[in-house]
Structures are given as C-alpha cells and as structure tokens.
Write a structure and sequence with these properties.
mainly alpha, 4 helices, 47% helix, 0% strand
C-alpha cells in the first residue's frame, strides 16, 4: 500500500477568515449541503426495486 498521501490525510482543513476567498465563496450552511446532492441518485430505480421486493416478501409471509 502506498503512503504517498499520508501527510495530506493528517492536515487540517484550510481556514479562510476575512480574505478574498472567503468573501467570494462564503461557507455554505450545513442545512443546505445535502440539498446540492438531491438531484443525483446513485442507482436509478433502486427505491422502486426495494419497494417491489418488499411487496413480494410481504405476500410470502401473509
């Protein structure tokens, strides 16, 4: 296993306080972060497949 990036993993996240970057790119509120990923589904049709399998299994045990 390569250890090329071990030093990067241990670094803290850079902080931008009152600099040009923080003015142009304010920190996103935690409550809004999940919303940016909402339009993307990892597996299309996954929820429907789970629902269908659940219905089939309920019929077996009823």
């Amino acid at each position: 296993m390569s250890r090329d990036y071990d030093d990067l993993l241990k670094m803290k996240r850079p902080e931008h306080i009152n600099d040009d970057f923080s003015i142009k790119h304010p920190k996103m509120p935690l409550s809004s972060r999940a919303k940016i990923f909402a339009p993307f589904a990892a597996l299309k049709g996954y929820e429907e497949s789970i629902d269908e399998a659940g219905k089939k299994n309920r019929n077996l045990y009823d």
